[in-house]
Amino acid sequence: MNKANQLRQINWRIKLLKYASETGNVARTCRHFGISRKSFYKWVRRHEEYGDAGLCDRSKKPKTMPRSTPKEIVSKVLYLRQNYHFGPGRIAAYLARYHQIKIAVSTVHAVLKRHNLSNLPSSLRSYQRQKHSWKRYEKQQSGHRLQIDVKFLERIPGSKKRFYQYTAIDDCTRMRVLKIYDSCNQATTIKFFEEVTNRLPFRILVVQTDNGAEFQSSFHWYLRDRDVQHVYIKPRTPRLNGKVERSHRIDAQEFYQLLDKDGISDNIILYNEKLKEWEDYYNLHRPHGALGGQTPYERLRQKTGLGM
């Protein structure tokens, strides 16, 4: 209730008490103003005790809320939302994994709504609801299909170079390999694939890419010479490379938006060092919604029996 409504409410109750004083008849006053005797005597008692200020409605919020979410948990929820833009499900999974705090997704949503953080600013929203829902699929064994794509990076202020992030993601485990280059062509793609084979702990059977110039004949026959099948998705169907496309959106939200680019400038080595830290966090520590809250490394161990 705003101050104007509170003032009108107080004036109406002052008028009620004045009418009762002038007529000397409580029953008549109650009938005239449409209130009960109990309410009338309540306002008389509050006016005698607090004056005109006592005629304003009091807050109905309980004095104690033993089942309310503790302040330290609320602060963690707000921190993850404001700094990492996690949704309620991701926040609940993160708190359970790293802080041993069990909290319902609905409770997280209520906390965000109470603090006006249930919706991200439009500048941070990269997801758009599609008219059609696509059936999710995944390979059952690691290495059976690897999606590769290139993310064109925005120029760093003060830098004259253009950088490109090469990304490879395993269809089964979501294990990723990331590297930044200052060129985007077939020779660079071949270098990146050599990096991928050295860093992934399983054999790659199939590579899936779009029809970009960096994935054409030289790269195609390079794979075939190494007994790796190369398949192209249909033109203008990026959804068929959905896992790598989605991972690029995660990079934009959780890495590049939070990256302190001061001092990087044209230093591609430093840029790759920071990207490698992000890659390690993604593979080893970040819960993945599509994996039921597992990290990609945990899914790899589950599929291969490593350390089980």
Which SSEs are present, and which pair or pack?
Elements: H1 3-23, H2 26-33, H3 37-50, H4 71-84, H5 88-98, H6 105-114, E1 146-152, E2 164-170, E3 176-181, H7 186-199, E4 206-209, H8 217-225, E5 229-232, H9 242-256, H10 268-284, H11 296-304
Parallel strand pairs: 1-4, 4-5
Antiparallel strand pairs: 1-2, 2-3
Task: Characterise this structure.
There is one protein chain. By secondary structure, the protein is of the alpha/beta class. The chain folds into three domains: 53 residues; 50 residues; 159 residues, Nucleotidyltransferase, domain 5, CATH 3.30.420.10. 46% of the residues lie in helices and 9% in strands. β2 and β3 form a beta hairpin.
Question: Count the strands?
Answer: 5
Number of helices: 11
Radius of gyration: 31 Å
The percent range for strand residues is: 5-15%
The name of the CATH architecture of the largest domain is 2-Layer Sandwich
Q: Assign the CATH class of the largest domain.
A: Alpha Beta
SSE topology string: HHHHHHEEEHEHEHHH
Shape: elongated
The N- and C-terminal alpha carbons lie at a distance of 60 Å
Instruction: Find the CATH superfamily of the largest domain.
Output: Ribonuclease H-like superfamily/Ribonuclease H
Strand order of the largest sheet: 3-2-1-4-5
The profile of the biggest β sheet is:
5 strands, mixed
